[in-house]
Amino acid sequence: MDKAHVEELTSQHASLAAQIDEEEHRPLPDMIKLHELKKEKLRLKDELAGHFH
């Protein structure tokens, strides 16, 4: 995995974190959307962790 790919994954991870935070602070959070965002964030985290091991 090259540096550009790692930077892209890191950027996507940060974007998902922001989306999750925004959704969690809505008056009526969409729990299905929140679940999907968290699942994707975890997938990216795992992919990044695999790069460093």
From TrEMBL:
One Pfam family in the UniProt entry: DUF465
Biased composition (Basic and acidic residues): 1-10
Region (Disordered) residue spans: 1-26
Protein name (record): YdcH family protein
Record organism: Sphingomonas sediminicola
Highest classification ranks of the organism: Bacteria, Pseudomonadati, Pseudomonadota, Alphaproteobacteria, Sphingomonadales
